Input
Amino acid sequence: MLHISYSERTYSKESVVALFDTALNLSASDFSFYFDHYNNMPALLDAINFGEGFVEGSCNPEMRELGVLSFKIGGVRQYIPNYAIPKINAGTLPNISAKNNKLILNNKGYYCYTAKNGKNYTWTVNNGHVGWANSESMSEAIGENRSGYNYRWEMHQASNLISRLAKGSGTYGFSNEEHKEILAGFGITEGHFTIDAGAGTRHYMLLENGVIVDIDKRIDFMNRTDWKKQGYQTGDVINVYGKECIVDEAGHIKVSADDEFSDTKIQYPDGKTL
Output
């Protein structure tokens, strides 16, 4: 259950329409979803955070009442005043943390990310994308916190890496040191780990030097390889991350990325390699 603040809902529906009709050339129909769900905070949040396409926002810290956030739902772009966006108490949400090196997150779920500045932020999970909730990030003034620490960049990097891994789209642009540091923040340590954030389960291995191995791709390659063409014989054993796999009559081995692996290396029969 989301813990939502109602403290900023001080404007009437009529005043909203009058304000935006004159200031931004918007009419009541542009706020129809907001009006229809005025007392349904979770529905508003879900529409903003899990709607269609891009969410667009504007925020003038000096004139916050003139800021709006727009989102698309049912093929129609809708608007909500910044001050009326429901606020979630991030500290009441479950932390994004792996257990036994398995990071399993509910799709369309809300989670808490604690930044290095010590502040809690609401994150969402949406078909493999894991990151700062649109309902907060798009309506908050851009900049650094009072300590001067750029928490936005920290969250951008953490979100980018974990989302790429969740979607299986690679980790280009990150150093091995960043791999280890960011994954440690999610409770992921060296060895085999899995991520499921609404885009299927992905299997990886974090090496001591920070290299991330895509186990799904490696296992697919091992299964597709015709080992007889590589000089192997029927009955030869290839040890794949601790699992013994026998070359069959067709020249193939059978191993699944879902298997429980006990090693970080692939060992070939004596005198043989790939």
Residues 151-167 form the longest helix (17 residues). The mean pLDDT is 86.
